[in-house]
Amino acid sequence: MFNSFKNYLVGAALILSPSLWVSNVWANDVVQMVHNADQYRLEAKSAKVVSLVSLYEHHQLDKTRKYSVYTRPNRESLVLFKSEVEAGQKMLMLGDNYWLVMPKSRRPIRITPMQKLLGEASVGDISTLTWSEDYSATLVDVESLDIDGETVEANLLSLVATTKGASYQKIDLWLNKQSDFPIKADLYLRSGKLAKQAWFKAGERNGQTRVTAMTLLDQIQPAKKTVIEYQEITEVELADKYYNPAYLTRNALAEL
User: Where along the sequence do coiled-coil regions lie (predicted)?
Assistant: First the structure.
């Protein structure tokens, strides 16, 4: 009888408090939502991502840059700058530690998480490809979005950084309610300032729906826009030596 009364009280509380119901129902599912969203962007644990970055100003194409990004578990990635004007530059990210290697330089340069976001190429945006490793997420609301004239129901999640090296301190992320495909994201700096808004483009890769491009609208310099196209994603696992800053300074890595 006591258990029946207890269940009655719990049920009544959930009816009277929708927010309590939402927090209980979605608490376990939100982690899976973020994981699913990551899978649309990078399905392999270790991969090579070839990215073409187009930089626009006042709606006019200003320049393009190309990068090869090698990722592997434990928040480790190596970025090779492939455009002629940046050829030979490398960026290595090992957890919360970052190095920039310049051509002919004898020593790697330690940089901060903020510095990897600076510059026209938005290296921080192309190199940090997963949310589930750097953020904790909570469900905020369910919203209706107008996407090209079509109404789409989306779960709005609030992501808060759990690591020092996260590119952004906070992210508001909208996921398709039916599929968890990422639709858009508001990206906030540690100061709380809204830096960029990202929109994700759906396409097909290897017969599966995937994020094939991301458009970043600069909220600090509204005239600027960055489009990152993921031209190729293949499952590749580099040897450990490539994730050593000292090795990068001694080798051009022309083979990659």
Answer: none
Are residues 23 and 97 both part of a single domain?
Answer: no
**Residues 22 and 56 occupy one common structural domain:** no
Does residue 14 sit in the same domain as residue 52? no
pTM of the model: 0.84
User: 49 and 173: one domain?
Assistant: yes
pLDDT tens profile 21-37: 444 445 569 999 999 99
CATH of the domain at 216: 2.50.20.10
Burial, 104: exposed, middle or buried (Cβ in 10 Å; 0-12, 13-18, 19+)? exposed
